[in-house]
């Protein structure tokens, strides 16, 4: 080993130049991480494949400025030098450096790190007076030469640089080592990868523009990091995340502080930041440091927004002054990809150069306009485009960014769906060939079959157990099956065996495999209104891991040996099994069997009495057991509502018939109860085995408050809401619809809404939730430990588990949000072309479910649509009821009560009660840059009298209305798509995307959950402000008629 000195010139965060001398050790052996290595390097972990035409080595400048291009998975064989990595670290900060590091770690990216500066023969010391960038480029070139020689010239090495003099100087020095500028490299080696070249041009343009900016200061400079740090410690500054109020995005933001270490003890709320100057270039989501303004300058937050109140109108009422501050520095940028809309032609200002600087408007209203330099402004007007932010200097009124990818024309279905995905950070590209290569083969020609070697390691239940599944009709991904049977009596009497058998996903998906990494990144299957994006490749989710009827499947089972009378648990068995489900039932069929109704079981074909009796008997026993289990939990206190799932059904044409279950079936709860039981017992098992590492579910406390409030409201109206179960909840809401003041006595009961179970986890849906896969692995390890084997390999550490849990939570939130927004998108697309004044489909019955300061939230069962109805407009007029129930706008006032709201005008007083049915008109408020929004206005204070033209079918009306809505929108989109194709444009809809499959739809519970979300929003985000269910937009300026 050789010791030398390395001189670094670093810039301190205050901008001073610092000279640092470090001892530097050189070694002869530094791993090359290439599979072509000729020198027995100690290459552990990821190595570069030899199956590429060349290796590419970016110099420091390319790594620093064009890393996004190197992130394309198509570009393989990338060697990052230590020199380039350090340049990224020093000039682009920790965030960018971490991004590079995760790129290097990710096996899906074919890139490695070569520690060139530790290699004795590739290291070159900096010469006196040599500029840093020149030296770095020289280092990388030397590394490229060494690398090429080290592999005995088996693979050409291409160094890429933006330094034209380097290209001239080095390109002909060594045979087999090429030096190209990035653009030429992309054109030569990746001509198919048009997106990379476009991105290159976009970034290059942005860099060029950046050099030619003005010097006039628009904002105060941010303070350097060490001053911020000291200030936060001393309590002078407050650290927190910036949250922009989307209804007043330009003016109002709040800093929610982190942790309890704030010295300013008088602060017990968020800090208000008013206006752009005080926000000082912080973007929604950034971690910032704020300084409080003198108390005399404190302001109140906006409390009530009235219908039609635009951003700029200033007659809003303000609450009591609160802590108000200004941003003095940014601790961490949390920028993501943003979807923007390019302005129409007349708004783009032409520049002197051949490019244009345009101000694009982000889809997310909380994000400021972004300045982009582009030569495509004309072509892209009214298109939605993904952009990334580059910088926001104090001399620039707006942040600078560059475009990444064009999504399509605004307003088109595919563009809008892609927008929703990007805005929620959901990345669901088709599974790669490498990922699919890990999958077992199953095709009609060579069907998959069980492996005899695997079979002997499993408990075979095929002959001994009657296994069946109960799911929504048409379900493709069957994660769970059940069995129940009598056991020979034991010393304490009759015994039963209950079995829950879950798809053994982790048998097929090995930890750390490419498929596993992809599933972890997705964390869940995403259900949008018209499509779904699976967490796992279809061969698993719809085939080998789906516990279909009549085929052998691997399962992970939990089986309880129970006392038949008391259901006391004698013994629990956990393990891997082999099953064959005999019946794939759907809920209605199972319920019909239980009710003793005529029912045709497809598997039985012509009725075979004995078998049918056996199945019915099993279902009855199961129902009995589930009732008892539930009763036990009820005694313990509370209920897990989320365990009850209602999924959408498909009709014969594979259309979604999404429905709010008006009459939930008991069998739903029976199945759910068994799943809850399994989840609970698996949680016990893994917690016993790994007290430190079990992934357990945690329930947030506010739920209880929410239900209490709902119950209070109901009680005030004279009836009870039973929230113990989905069915009970639905039943009581049904009753609530037509209440008699004394019909339902007020029950004085106090429920607890957490779990009556002390431990809980996710085990029963491994096909569509990554959390369940983790739990399956933990359970497998627990079983192995019990058998005497130490854990085969180290389990994930707590920190890793915590990170994964955080990721799963984030993705789940994103999935829920995307589902909600996509539903709203379809609603808008459906109503967009209908004239609300004449089209009877735009008038519907609505139920008031929440009372607000200046209106109410209503639910329209026919379309499964929720929204705000305003009773007061910007002119101060209120909705007033005529003799016939019809409504007008009149000058008057508004009074809100717990369970009703009244308006008073010269004509008289109108009352709107909680849970009352009213008639509303539905229209669409279009928006060019953001999402369109649904607007609701009261037509009449009475239930809607639907025209008698609708044909009654067995399906509930709501289901029909909503499925028609989605179908019609898709039909329209496909028609216009076909028209486009005729004009020679390529199809953007992949087969996968076009195909409809099972979709998860919001049930009654999720409707109520949303009310809770709004409640939380209200208290934590904008005080007592009215948020209109998150629909009130700055564009709602058009006054109501
Ligand atoms: Zn080597």
Automatic annotation (TrEMBL):
SMART domains registered for this protein in UniProt: RNB (SM00955)
InterPro entries: Dis3_CSD2, NA-bd_OB-fold, RNase_II/R, RNase_II/R_CS, RNR_Ribonuclease, Rrp44_CSD1, RRP44_S1
CDD domains: PIN_Rrp44-like
Keyword Signal included in the entry's annotation: no
Family: Belongs to the RNR ribonuclease family.
Cofactor: Mg(2+)
Biased composition regions of type Basic and acidic residues, renumbered to the chain: 979-998, 1032-1041
Biased composition (Polar residues): 947-957
GO terms, biological process: gene expression; mRNA catabolic process; rRNA catabolic process
Catalysis: reaction(s): Exonucleolytic cleavage in the 3'- to 5'-direction to yield nucleoside 5'-phosphates
Protein name: DIS3-like exonuclease 1
Boundaries of every RNB domain copy: 458-785
Lineage: Eukaryota, Metazoa, Chordata, Craniata, Vertebrata
A molecular function GO annotation: exoribonuclease II activity
Enzyme class at the top of the EC tree: hydrolase
Presence of keyword Nucleotidyltransferase: no
GO annotation, cellular component aspect: cytoplasmic exosome (RNase complex)
PROSITE patterns cross-referenced by the UniProt entry: RIBONUCLEASE_II (PS01175)
Region (Disordered): 942-962, 975-998, 1018-1041
Cellular compartments annotated: Cytoplasm
Keywords recorded for this protein, A-Z: Cytoplasm, Exonuclease, Exosome, Hydrolase, Magnesium, Nuclease, RNA-binding
Record Pfam families: OB_Dis3, RNB, Rrp44_CSD1, Rrp44_S1
EC number from the UniProt entry: 3.1.13.1
């Amino acid at each position: 080993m050789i010791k030398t000195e390395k001189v670094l010139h670093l810039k301190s965060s205050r901008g001073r130049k610092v000279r640092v001398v470090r001892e530097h050790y050189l070694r002869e052996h530094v791993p090359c991480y290439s599979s072509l290595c000729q020198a027995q390097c100690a290459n552990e972990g990821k190595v570069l494949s030899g199956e590429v035409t060349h290796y590419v080595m970016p110099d420091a400048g390319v790594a620093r400025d064009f890393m996004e291009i190197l992130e394309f998975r198509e570009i393989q064989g990338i060697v990052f030098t230590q020199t380039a990595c350090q340049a990224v670290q020093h000039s682009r900060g920790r965030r960018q450096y971490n991004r590079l590091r995760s790129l290097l770690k990710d096996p899906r990216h074919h890139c490695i790190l070569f520690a060139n500066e530790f290699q004795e023969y590739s290291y070159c010391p900096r010469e006196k007076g040599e500029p840093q960038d020149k030296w770095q480029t020289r280092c990388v070139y030397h590394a490229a030469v060494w690398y090429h020689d080290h592999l005995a010239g088996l693979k050409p090495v291409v160094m890429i640089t933006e330094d034209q003099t380097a290209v001239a100087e080095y390109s002909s020095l060594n045979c087999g080592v090429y030096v190209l500028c990035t653009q030429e490299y992309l054109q030569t080696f990746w001509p198919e990868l048009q997106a990379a070249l476009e991105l290159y041009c976009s970034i290059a343009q942005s860099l060029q523009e950046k050099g030619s900016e003005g010097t006039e200061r628009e904002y105060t400079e941010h303070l350097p990091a060490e001053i911020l740090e000291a200030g936060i410690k001393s309590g002078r500054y407050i650290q927190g995340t910036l949250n922009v109020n989307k209804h007043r995005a330009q003016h109002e933001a709040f800093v929610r502080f982190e942790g309890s270490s704030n010295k300013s003890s008088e602060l017990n709320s968020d800090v208000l930041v008013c206006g752009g100057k005080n926000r000082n270039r912080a973007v929604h989501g950034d971690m910032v440091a704020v300084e409080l303004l003198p108390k005399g300058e404190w302001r109140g937050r906006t409390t009530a927004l009235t219908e039609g109140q635009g951003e700029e109108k200033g007659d809003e009422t303000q609450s009591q002054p609160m802590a108000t501050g200004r941003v003095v520095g940014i601790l961490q940028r949390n920028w993501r990809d943003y979807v923007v809309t390019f302005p129409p032609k007349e708004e783009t200002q032409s520049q002197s150069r051949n490019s244009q600087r345009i101000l694009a408007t982000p889809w997310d209203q909380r994000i400021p306009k972004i300045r982009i330099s582009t030569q495509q402004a004309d072509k892209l007007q009214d298109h939605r485009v993904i952009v990334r932010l580059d910088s926001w200097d104090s001399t620039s009124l707006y942040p600078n960014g560059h475009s990444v990818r064009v999504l399509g024309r605004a307003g088109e279905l595919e563009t809008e769906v892609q927008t929703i995905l990007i805005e929620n950070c959901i990345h669901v590209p088709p599974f790669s060939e490498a990922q699919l290569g890990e999958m077992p083969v199953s095709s009609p020609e060579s069907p998959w079959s069980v492996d005899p070697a695997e079979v002997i390691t499993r408990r075979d239940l095929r002959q001994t157990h009657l296994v069946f599944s109960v799911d929504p009709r048409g379900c493709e991904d069957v994660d769970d099956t059940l069995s129940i049977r009598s056991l020979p009596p034991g010393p304490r009497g009759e015994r039963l065996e209950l079995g829950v058998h879950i798809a053994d996903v982790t048998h097929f998906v090995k930890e750390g495999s490419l498929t596993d990494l992809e599933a972890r990144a997705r964390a869940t299957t995403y259900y949008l209104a018209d499509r779904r994006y699976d967490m796992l490749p279809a061969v698993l989710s719809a085939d080998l891991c789906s516990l279909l009827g009549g085929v052998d499947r691997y399962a992970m089972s939990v089986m309880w040996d129970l006392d038949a009378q008391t259901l006391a648990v004698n013994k629990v068995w956990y393990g891997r099994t082999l099953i064959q489900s005999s019946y794939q039932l759907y809920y209605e069929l199972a319920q019909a069997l239980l009710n003793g109704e005529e029912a045709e079981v497809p598997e039985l074909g012509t009725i075979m009495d004995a078998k049918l009796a056996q199945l019915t008997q099993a279902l009855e026993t199961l129902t009995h057991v589930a009732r008892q289990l539930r009763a036990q939990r009820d005694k313990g206190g509370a209920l897990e509502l989320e365990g009850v799932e209602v999924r959408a059904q498909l009709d014969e044409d594979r259309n979604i018939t999404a429905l709010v279950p008006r009459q939930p079936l008991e069998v739903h709860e029976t199945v759910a109860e068994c799943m809850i039981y399994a989840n609970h017992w698996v949680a016990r098992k893994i917690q016993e085995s790994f007290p430190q590492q079990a992934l357990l579910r945690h329930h947030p406390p506010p739920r209880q408050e929410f239900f209490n409030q709902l119950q209070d409201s109901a009680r005030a109206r004279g009836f009870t809401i039973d929230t113990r179960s989905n069915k009970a909840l639905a039943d009581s809401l049904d009753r609530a619809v037509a209440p008699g003041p004394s019909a339902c006595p007020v029950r004085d009961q106090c429920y607890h809404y957490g779990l009556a179970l002390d431990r809980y986890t996710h085990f029963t849906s491994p096909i569509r939730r990554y959390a369940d896969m983790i739990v399956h692995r933990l359970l497998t390890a627990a079983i192995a430990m019990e058998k005497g084997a130490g854990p085969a390999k180290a389990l994930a550490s707590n920190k890793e588990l915590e990170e994964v849990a955080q990721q799963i939570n984030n993705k789940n939130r994103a999935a829920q949000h995307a589902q909600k927004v996509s539903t709203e998108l379809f609603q808008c697309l459906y109503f967009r072309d209908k004239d609300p004044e004449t089209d009877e489909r735009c008038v519907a019955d609505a139920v008031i479910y929440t009372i607000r300061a200046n209106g109410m939230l209503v639910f329209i069962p026919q379309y499964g649509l929720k929204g705000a109805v305003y009773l007061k407009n910007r002119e101060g007029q209120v909705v007033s009821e005529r003799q016939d129930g019809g409504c007008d706008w009149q000058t008057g006032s508004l009074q809100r009560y717990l369970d009703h709201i009244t308006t008073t005008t010269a004509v008289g007083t109108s009352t709107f009660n909680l849970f009352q049915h009213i008639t509303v008109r539905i229209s669409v408020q279009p928006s060019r840059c953001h999402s369109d929004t649904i607007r609701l206005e009261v037509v009449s204070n009475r239930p809607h009298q639907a025209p008698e033209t609708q044909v009654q079918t067995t399906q509930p009306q709501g289901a029909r209305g909503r499925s028609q809505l989605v179908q019609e929108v898709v039909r329209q989109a496909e028609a216009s798509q076909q028209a486009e194709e005729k004009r020679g444009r390529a199809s953007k809809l992949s087969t996968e995307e076009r195909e409809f499959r099972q979709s998860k739809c919001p049930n009654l519970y999720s409707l109520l959950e949303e009310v809770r979300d709004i409640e939380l929003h209200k208290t934590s985000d904008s005080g007592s402000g009215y948020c209109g269910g998150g629909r009130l937009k700055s564009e709602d300026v058009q006054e109501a008629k």
